[in-house]
Amino acid sequence: MLIECPHCFTRVLPRADGECPACQQNTQSVRDIDRQFKTVTVGETSAMPDHCSTCMLPETRLVRVTRSRVIWGAAGDSGVAAVVATVIRLLLGGIHFLFHLMTSERDSGSQKVVVQMRHCRECSRRQPLEPTFVNYDAYTMKFIVHREFAHEFVAMNVPESNAAD
CA angle, corner 53, sides to 147 and 22, nearest 5? Predict the structure, then answer.
């Protein structure tokens, strides 16, 4: 069964002895109460506690975190048209780049996930917010946050925090 390692926060299948294959630490050795940081899944409409997500100092500043990915054939092309365009590009070889410039907007699109997190300026200087996982289907991002922030966040966003990753 996949679990989230309490040390490196990576989703892993632990070895038989409980060792994390990513960080080689025992996934069973940390009690929940001893953990300083946890992960939360933040959606585009999630409510935020009035504290910095890293240091738990009172904070009203919201930091916008955006991630996007290219989706081929998303601009109304049928699947067949996208395949034909790709085959033509491969056959044309050197002209591929020019053809791509002329047609890229028609046969591709992008999907963007945007969330806002509380993060103080000092924590932003030391460690910018970086999601550990982006779920483009659910429009959510997973972040490593302070344990108390996680508790407050879950209390404010009960249905959203229970969404599958």
Answer: 60
Which has more confidence, 18 or 162? Answer: 18
> How many domains, in total, are found in the chain?
3
Q: Please check whether residues 67 and 134 belong to one and the same domain.
A: yes
Distances (CA, A) of 126 to 24, 53, 132: 26, 13, 17
Find the domain containing 45 and state its range: 36-73+108-165
> In the chain, which ranges are E strands?
3-4, 11-12, 37-43, 62-72, 108-118, 133-135, 140-146
For residues 72 and 106, what is the distance between their CA atoms, to the nearest angstrom? Answer: 9
Please tell me whether residues 89 and 159 are part of one structural domain.
Answer: no
Label residue 63 by pLDDT band (50, 70, 90).
very high
- For residues 52 and 91, membership in a common domain is answered with no
For the record, the structure tokens of 65 come out as 């975190």
What is the 8-class DSSP label of residue 57? -
Q: What angle do CA 138, 70, 47 make, to 5 degrees?
A: 30
